[in-house]
TrEMBL record:
<dbReference type="GO" id="GO:0006310">
    <property type="term" value="P:DNA recombination"/>
</dbReference>
<dbReference type="InterPro" id="IPR045562">
    <property type="entry name" value="RecG_dom3_C"/>
</dbReference>
<comment type="function">
    <text>Plays a critical role in recombination and DNA repair. Helps process Holliday junction intermediates to mature products by catalyzing branch migration. Has replication fork regression activity, unwinds stalled or blocked replication forks to make a HJ that can be resolved. Has a DNA unwinding activity characteristic of a DNA helicase with 3'-5' polarity.</text>
</comment>
<dbReference type="InterPro" id="IPR001650">
    <property type="entry name" value="Helicase_C-like"/>
</dbReference>
<dbReference type="Pfam" id="PF17191">
    <property type="entry name" value="RecG_wedge"/>
</dbReference>
<dbReference type="GO" id="GO:0016887">
    <property type="term" value="F:ATP hydrolysis activity"/>
</dbReference>
<keyword id="KW-0234">DNA repair</keyword>
<keyword id="KW-0227">DNA damage</keyword>
<keyword id="KW-0233">DNA recombination</keyword>
<feature type="domain" description="Helicase C-terminal">
    <location>
        <begin position="453"/>
        <end position="612"/>
    </location>
</feature>
<keyword id="KW-0413">Isomerase</keyword>
<dbReference type="Pfam" id="PF00270">
    <property type="entry name" value="DEAD"/>
</dbReference>
<dbReference type="GO" id="GO:0006281">
    <property type="term" value="P:DNA repair"/>
</dbReference>
<dbReference type="InterPro" id="IPR047112">
    <property type="entry name" value="RecG/Mfd"/>
</dbReference>
<dbReference type="Pfam" id="PF00271">
    <property type="entry name" value="Helicase_C"/>
</dbReference>
<keyword id="KW-0347">Helicase</keyword>
<protein>
    <recommendedName>
        <fullName>ATP-dependent DNA helicase RecG</fullName>
        <ecNumber>5.6.2.4</ecNumber>
    </recommendedName>
</protein>
């Protein structure tokens, strides 16, 4: 049978080659994509009666032309057309703007429907849309889908094209959920749901269509996670790291500190997994400063001792450099070769490095995403550790898999996720949690002050730097504008340099190139810079133990977990450390956020309060969450569905039938598409 995913858009009547190209820009490549391009709301063209309508509402009513239309001109070439129309036995005035061409069509006695804004006191409708009944109205009486459109694709075109696609191909839409789940939740069948999400008969019918498609979306998402998990657990083609406990204990003994019980526990969990022949896929979550890096180092050490290579992947070059330094220190006496691979290497250096990696001359490579590009080959990659925010997606894993490498994967995150959310968001992973922080850590004192107290804040900077300590001052965040953030940073840098002419004030922001950033971080790490003005580029992972003061300007602009991340840049050694939030929040939740920060410096507690303040929707909305964006599902209102879908998906993938029975061919095909399941894997 022909597959809707393979039918090109041009087969749809009315789609030209040019339009086809423009549709590609919306991610619409085949008929299936078009049918799955759901509206984000509806315009209501259902007929109402005037007596039920409130002033100012947008309405559709039916009427009869009772007065000769009048044209008047105003402004620059603008026209206003008015006519008296009888609606529900009352005479109202209909007003059109810039529709002069309608004048001749508005003949006495003709029946018309008017859509527009109702003004009660003037008995007037400002018409945005009208249809003549004798022409066979298309919109009147319906809910019209509103799609996200742009460029050469207009709303009218999108509606028409999707309507046409439904006509031509609607009958080919196949059910893709197992019948028993459709029954269990009394879901609308797939083909009906697709039809009615675009063309709802009424709100109830539209809601039922949405309900079905939301469940489907979340179920398929969970199915991929669960299937992936099942697959990696049952495939014995991962790397079974052969390394004994004694080797690890000896290495741990060379560390400058004793591991916390929590660290020991997670190291054991990780090593247990690494020794198994399946692919580890584990999430390590721990508060900022909990000591995740050393756990990663031990895991990497184990990989190398077992005769393999390790990779540590981080989001920024600053972090890559820093990890390179800390691993360099930890492995100083071990003979382990650590190298750096980032996007800013020269071609020549990159070539040399890639050759050494492939020959196995390098044991551990630290870097940004450059690490998993197609041209990077390892002699024997045993473990990939990824740090902060960068979940190592299924796609990236399959890049490695295609190269014949199935490394264990450890993902670290400092945004603790409450358990219920974790199992859902990271449904494909096992989770290890670092609960305690290293002993001897003095809790960070957090203060919240108004801008009027800036003088005292400057005094604080003076006091700490006089003690030989260092400070960060973070500029306000301007949403989605890197450029403005940089301007802020420049301004703040000037102010601070004037306020402290005797100190060296550094500047760090996203527009510096890698070498510049690196130099600033090196100088700050070496204590040559006393006060560092920075944007949120220091948010993740930066580790300068001598820094004891974190000042965050306009703190109300930051989310709780981001504030907590920033605060985690201090308090990293034995010194008493401080975080000062400079903020005059206007909203109640803004004040609440500041209070949470003052009251607790436990990241799990911060996350819990954050979830409480924002609800799961927003919590998931943050980029740290690692959840993909859903087309229809909304994490705030559909959270219960997500949990149900997860259980259903886990049950289904646990059934041997799922992997063989023709009943599930359609679902397996979806998994194959995402390269999660490759037909032969389990056979
Ligand atoms: P994070 O979990 O935020 O990545 P890091 O790994 O950067 O934390 O560790 C924070 C600091 O704590 C580092 O300076 C590290 O050397 C130190 N540290 C880690 N583990 C211990 C420990 N068991 N005892 C004392 N200090 C430790
Ligand atoms: Mg870290």
């Amino acid at each position: 049978m022909l597959n809707l995913e393979e039918i090109p858009l041009r087969q749809i009547k009315g789609v030209s080659a040019a339009k086809e190209q423009e549709l590609h820009a919306f991610g619409i490549h085949a008929v299936a994509d078009l049918l799955n391009y759901y509206p984000f709301r509806y315009e209501d063209y259902r007929l109402r009666e005037l007596k039920d309508v409130k002033d100012g509402e947008k309405i559709t009513v039916r009427g009869i032309i009772r007065g000769l239309p009048m044209l008047s001109r105003f402004g620059r070439g603008k026209v206003r057309l008015t006519s008296k129309v009888e609606v529900d036995h009352q005479l109202v005035t209909a007003v059109w703007f810039n529709r002069a061409f309608l004048k001749d069509q508005l003949t006495l006695g003709r029946e018309i429907t008017l859509t527009g804004k109702w003004e009660q006191h003037r008995m007037q409708i400002t018409v945005s849309d009208s249809e003549f009944l004798d022409k066979g109205p298309a919109k009147t009486g319906t809910l019209q889908p509103v799609y996200s459109v742009g460029g050469g694709i207009t709303q009218v075109y999108m509606r028409k094209t999707i309507r046409q696609a439904l006509l031509q191909y609607g009958a080919m839409i196949r059910e893709n959920l197992p019948p028993r789940l459709v029954d269990k939740y009394r879901l609308m069948p797939k083909s009906e749901a697709v039809l009615h999400i675009h063309q709802p008969q009424d709100t109830k019918n539209g809601a039922a269509a949405r309900r079905r498609l939301v469940y489907e979306e979340l179920f398929l998402f969970q199915l991929k996670l669960q299937a992936y998990r099942m697959q990696s657990r049952s495939r014995m083609d991962g790397v079974a790291h052969r390394v004994d406990g004694e080797t690890i204990r000896q290495f741990a003994a060379t560390l400058p500190f004793e591991l916390t019980d929590s660290q020991k526990k997670v190291v054991n969990e990780i090593l247990t997994d690494m020794r198994q022949p399946y692919c580890m896929n584990r999430l390590l979550q721990g508060d900022v400063g909990a000591g995740k890096t050393v756990v990663a180092a031990i895991a990497l050490y184990a990989a190398v001792k077992a005769g393999h290579q390790g990779a540590l992947m981080v989001p920024t070059e600053i972090l890559a450099e820093q990890h390179l330094r800390s691993l360099g220190k930890l492995f100083a006496e071990t003979g382990i070769e650590v190298a750096l691979l980032t996007g800013s290497l020269t071609d020549r250096k990159r070539r040399d490095l890639l050759a050494s990696l492939q020959m196995g001359l390098i044991d551990i490579v630290v870097g940004t995403h450059a690490l998993i590009q197609e041209d990077v080959f390892f002699r024997s990659l045993g473990l990939v550790v990824t740090d902060e925010q960068h979940r190592f997606g299924v796609n990236q894993r399959s890049v490695l898999r295609r190269k014949g490498q199935n490394p264990d994967v450890l993902t670290m995150t400092a945004t603790p996720i409450p358990r219920t959310l974790a199992i859902t968001a990271f449904g494909d992973m096992d989770v290890s949690t670092l609960r305690e922080r290293p002993r001897g850590r003095v809790p960070i004192k957090t203060y919240w002050v108004k801008h009027t107290m800036m003088d005292r804040v400057l005094g604080f900077i003076r006091r700490e730097t006089d003690e030989g300590r260092q400070a960060y001052i973070i500029c306000p965040l301007i949403e989605e504008s890197d450029k403005l953030d940089v301007q802020n940073a420049l301004d703040l840098h000037v102010q601070m340099s004037q306020a402290f002419p005797d100190l060296r004030v550094g500047l760090l922001h996203g527009r510096l190139n890698a070498a510049e950033k690196d130099e600033v971080m090196r100088a700050f790490g070496a204590g040559e810079i006393h006060l560092l003005v920075a944007t949120t580029v220091v948010e993740v992972g930066v580790d300068v133990p001598n820094a004891t003061l974190m000042i965050i300007m306009d703190a109300e602009r930051f989310g709780l977990s981001q504030l907590h991340q920033l605060r985690g840049r201090v308090g990293r050694a034995g010194h008493q450390s401080y975080c000062v939030l400079v903020a005059d929040p206007k909203s109640e939740t803004g004040r609440e956020r500041m209070n949470v920060m003052v009251e607790t410096d436990d990241g799990f507690e911060v996350a819990r309060r954050d979830l409480e303040l924002r609800g799961p929707g927003d919590f998931f909305g943050t980029k740290q969450s690692g959840l993909p964006e859903f087309k229809l599902a909304d994490m705030a209102s559909d959270f219960a569905v997500l949990e149900a879908a997860r259980d259903d998906a886990a049950d289904l993938t646990a059934e041997p039938d799922f992997w063989h029975s023709p009943d599930y061919e359609e679902l397996r095909r979806l998994l194959r598409q995402d390269q999660i399941f490759q037909g032969d894997l389990l056979d």
